[in-house]
Write a structure and sequence with these properties.
Blueprint lengths: L1 H16 L7 E2 L3 H8 L8 H9 L1 H15 L1 H24 L2 E2 L7 H12 E2 L2 E2 L1 H9 L1 H15 L3 H18 L4
Parallel strand pairs: 1-2
Antiparallel strand pairs: 3-4
Length: about 180
Amino acid sequence: MMTRGILGWIAAVALATGIANAAPIVTNGLAGALIAQGGGAGSFSSIRALSAIVGSNAVQDELSRITARRGAQAAGRFVDIFDYAMADAWHRAGSENVSIPDGGLRGAQLGDALAAAGNASGAFAAQRFFAHILTAPLWKSVTTDIDTRYGPGAAARFTNETSMLFGDLFTNRAR
């Protein structure tokens, strides 16, 4: 009987404060489209997504640049973190009351929209990009998870590499 009373009180507080009825924050559809291009929520692949958007040759060229700059292990880790970040964002979205719909863009149209999401005064900025496509609070949670899983500073390194990679793929290069 005591449990029912406490649960009833919690429900009443939730209703009174609007927590129970809070509409989710709906993202702009870009993250959902990116996830769809990468194989969907259960099997997202950053390589698959980017290849579908700009072509596999362009993606391989950029990964070769990361490998030349930081080594094969770092390039592989970048891909692992990218895949993890998108899966983690998808997983966390429900608990953080964020909806990630598929906006329906594909290929070059999605690439143009992603470039615009990250473009800050002519340069691609990954922090802006992820905050724009996922929401800033959700991205902050994901970066904390990246550092927890891959070590301190991993999120910052990933963000820097993403800025360079996406800048080359979407901002600095004509398709």
